[in-house]
Design a protein that fits this description.
The chain is mainly alpha-helical. It is built from one helix and no strands. The chain is rod-shaped.
């Protein structure tokens, strides 16, 4: 009886090993595609982060330029008023 149990466990082990091997052969192209999509997603996220940082810097630069233009306009208005 004990021999039958070990034989059954060996058969189950062999069958599960064969199934796992055949499934790995079937799904290997799919795992490659999933890995490629994952890498592309990571690259896209990094791109979005860099783009957000650059947009933030550009917005700050534009705000500074607007402030400078307002100051220049005020000074020009004063000069124009003095000439009149």
């Amino acid at each position: 009886m004990a021999d039958n149990i070990t034989n059954v466990s060996e058969v189950i082990g062999d069958v599960s090993g064969n199934i796992a091997e055949s499934l790995s052969q079937i799904f290997s192209p799919i795992t490659g595609i999933i890995k490629a999509v994952g890498i592309a997603f990571i690259v896209y996220v990094v791109y979005l982060i860099v783009k957000a940082v650059l947009n933030f810097r550009n917005k700050n630069r534009i705000k500074n330029i607007e402030k400078n233009i307002e100051q220049i306009n005020k000074k020009l208005d004063l000069i124009i008023k003095k000439k009149k």
